[in-house]
Amino acid sequence: MQALPFALTKIQAPRPRGEHLDRPQLEGRLVSAIGQARLMLLCAPAGFGKTALLGQLLASRQDTAVAWIAADDDDDLARFIACLVAALEPHDLPWRISPQALTTLGQQPRGLRRIADELLSALGGADLRQGPRPGHGLIVLDDAHRIADARIFELLDLLLEHLPAPWTVLLASRTDPPLSLARLRAQGELLELRQADLGFADDEVRALAARRGADAEWVQSLVERLQGWPAGIRLSLDAATLAGKRTPAALGQRHLFDYLASEVLADMPDGLRRFLLQTSVLAELEAGRCSALTGDPQAAGWLDDIERRGLFVTVLDGPQLTLRLHDLFRDFLEDRLRHESPDALTGLLHRAAETEPDAARRIGYLQRAGDWAAAEAALHAVARGWLTDGLLTQTQRLLAQFPAGWRERSSPLMLLQGLAAWTRWDFVAMAGHFQQALRLAEQQGLAEQAQRARAYVALSLCQVDQRDDAAALLAELRTQALPLEAEVTTLTASLWHAGDYGPVGPSAGYMARRNALLAECTDLGLWYQATPNPRDVALPGIAPALTEFVERVLRLAPEHPTAMSAIAWLLHGLIALWQGDALRAAERLQRADEESRWLGGPRNVRTMLALAGGMLHALRGDIDAMRQDSAHLLADPEQEPPSARRDKLRRHMQFQALRLAMIADDAERAGALVATLGAPDLLASTRIAQRARELALPAFAAELAGRWPQVVECWQAALQTPDALEWYGLLTEGRLRLAAALVRLGRQREAAQQVEAAALRCASDGWIGSALLAGPRALATLAHGGLALGAGAQAALANWLDSAERLRGHQAPRPDAAPGPPLAVPVAGPGPLAALSTREREVLERMAAGDSNKLIARAFDLSPHTVKRHVANILDKLGAQTRGQAAARWREAPPP
Questions:
Q1: Which of 69, 79, 423, 494 sees the fewest Cβ atoms within 10 Å?
Q2: In angstroms, rounded to a whole number, what is the distance separating the alpha carbons of residues 827 and 835?
Q3: Half-sphere exposure (CA, 13 Å, Cβ side) for 110?
Q4: Nearest-angstrom CA–CA distance, 367 and 414
Q5: How far apart are alpha carbons 730 and 688 in whole angstroms?
Q6: Tens-digit pLDDT profile for residues 399-451
Q7: Is the alpha carbon torsion for 834, 835, 841, 845 positive or negative?
Q8: Which of helix, strand or coil describes residue 459?
Q9: How far apart are CA 53 and CA 769, in angstroms?
Q10: pLDDT for the residue 186
Q11: Helix, strand, or coil (residue 169)
Q12: Is residue 820 over pLDDT 60?
């Protein structure tokens, strides 16, 4: 299982205090609202016992499924979602997409709505029944006032609008959260407990004081001065019990707390006092970390003493004693530490960072210590992985916490800002950051950093159409000895430049060299940056290197789906399609589609899948499926904000949809797209792929109209720039369409030359996919056109036509055709279970027996991610909403 991107203590609920005051009326109001109100809000200033009350509530509700999150100042949307998903993990929600993928959806258009929909679907399908009684679910967000990312509250509002009945959200906060409280209040869906509700009543103060043996007269003065403030009352009792002090009346709450805390602290044993001051830098106190931080071997004993004394701590529910200091108490202790031992604070923060498993907190400790160089190095070590996993805002937040002067003078941080801009597809900002990173590295004499930055500058120049500058820089870089990241980036940029501007001939060599460099590399972020573009499948000589890259990625990829593995399966499918193996192509593209859906359909993957799937469907003549893929392509640009980029992207997608229609012989759709595209725009871009589009457009339009002389003229003009037509095999397809037009005009000699050239091009890779794109009609025209071809070209043409017709279902497969790999065949049998695979039936049997996902994973030696995917597939195939419904189908099914 993946390591959690946050400290586990964030999702550990508190235990009830050792010394607590029973408040049955208050707890009763909370209990009665669970499952009835959509939102419960505990809103009061610090020290009003909100967390303590929640600990008592949860201890009394064993029949409630609880997901607990303690908010921190550094929580952003992605981190909050990761916490929520992990907190819900024990309840085996029936996810329809990977819950880990929810963090990346927030970057997509309408991303918050999609996240809410997936969460609501999973929450609504949860089986919460406890024995004969229906169970309830409670999502608790403690310290909600810490949250600065407004999108978290936007998401909560969307959840609360349609929250399924068994679930309630409970927020504890010092301030009103920016939610639609008025709407919930009007609908009777809100329970509010505020300062007046949470403060101790007079009789409660007296009951608590009686336990300490306090003087009745003094207690009455305490009641009058503190007005039910729980924190002040508890500390006053501690101070009075331990030191016999009286509580001053003239101080405000915060100063009063500090005064009382100082009285309590002064009466402690020196060892405990020193231990508390030193460990106040930690978010949570656990014996091992506290011992490493302080060097005190008595750490476990001090923690027991702290809990026993009833100091202002929360005890977390976990396998070992873990305490969280109350904010008021921790702030007081840190302030005292800063004044008493200012030199010690920096060392403590460094040692805290050394033992902190949460990378974001670790970097935060170093930033608090003012060790910007160490914080920079720590961020650099994890940032690319975060960006690959969609944790963009977390990276940006930590970047922003460096002093502006440091950021502006740091080449590594400037480089990270460029990578973050790349993640946002903000190519102009990306180029600016990379160029500034290069200037800084050169000014500061950082030779290796300068090489890395120079490679990224070259890559960014390709994206902002600075073709000549990119070419010159890449030519220089390829002659130098470079560190691994810089050389891999240089070769990636070289592939981009060749594919965008030509010449394409060296592309295969670039990819082979990059494969060799990556052979021993385990940095998935660098592999992901090197992922080939699907257009590369048609480049000359690319077959061995592309196949090797894809196979290595699929071996290296983690068991759970990632965008990288989904693209690798897509490329694997295109390779099979280019080999003419439609069966393998369909299987692999189906795998890519499954991974993409489990990831929530990342835009780049879905669009590439639509084009690859559209080609397969067009070759098969499945016009309805091809049109669905085309519709996705045509809709994709509308997700962009209005800009020249969106206009270019729209035209590009319209051309791709036209090409699919031409391959499928869908004249109606092709004609409509030709009319939409209008006249060619040869000034659209300097990129060869876009020039190819504009050069081929009039040829397609003429072919639809049956104007064969014009078809010949247009393809002959297009073929003057062959590099431009390598995009997805358009060069070979164009030659064959030109040859078919020439045959129609009786120009067999010229047609034969084009077929010979196409056969030679296909033979160089052993791939025939680009020839099949000409379609069976053009291939049949050539096969029966009386062409004088060499033996090799004649055999190739016969093979192309046979393969194209078999794809359309016009012929049965030849008995000597190489078989594809076996499909995953469902177990045969009657009833609704017939669609399930063997493994899915095994998982369902365990579900029906009441096993959790963890137990199922252990039984079959699977990862929890894989079990969740099996559960999702089972629910989809059975049309069930919950695990319970699916289990009932198993029990109702006839025995095999």
A1: 423
A2: 7
A3: 9
A4: 17
A5: 12
A6: 999 999 999 999 999 999 999 998 887 889 999 999 999 999 999 999 999 99
A7: negative
A8: helix
A9: 67
A10: 92
A11: strand
A12: no
What is the share, in percent, of the chain residues with pLDDT greater than 90?
49
DSSP-assigned letter for residue 861: T
Asked whether residue 816 carries a pLDDT value surpassing 50, the answer given is no
Q: What DSSP letter does each residue of 260-307 carry, written as one string?
A: HHHHHHHTS-HHHHHHHHHHTTSSSEEHHHHHHHH--TTHHHHHHHHH
Q: Please state the φ and ψ torsions of residue 268, each to the nearest 5 degrees.
A: -80, 160
Question: Residue 819: pLDDT above 60?
Answer: no
Pairwise CA distance, residues 84 & 856, whole Å: 22
Instruction: Please give the Cα distance from 532 to 802 (Å, whole number).
Output: 31
pLDDT digits (tens, 9 = 90+) for 148-187: 899 999 999 999 999 998 899 999 999 999 999 999 999 9
- What residues contact residue 559 under an 8 Å CB cut-off, 6+ apart? 863, 865, 866
Sheet of 313-315, strand order: 285-286, 322-325, 313-315
Comparing 502 with 743, which gets the higher pLDDT? 743
Three-class DSSP labels, 320-331: CCEEEECHHHHH
pLDDT in tens, 623-643: 999 999 999 999 999 888 788
- Amino acid letter, 241: T
In the prediction, which pLDDT does 237 show? 72
CA distances to 96, 192, 457, 667, 868 from 89, in Å: 14, 28, 43, 51, 11
536 closest CA partner among 848, 305, 765, 287: 765
Q: Are 459 and 466 in contact (CB under 8 A)?
A: no
The H-assigned helical ranges of 706-729 are 708-718
| Euclidean distance between CA atoms 192 and 633, whole angstroms | 48
Tokens of residue 163, six digits = 């929250």
| Dist CA 477 CA 861 (whole Å) | 47
CA distance 677 to 670: 11
Residues counted in the chain: 896
Structure token pair of residue 101: 């993928």
Structure tokens at 294: 């302080």
User: pLDDT, tens digit, for every residue of 751-788?
Assistant: 999 999 999 999 988 889 999 999 999 999 999 999 99
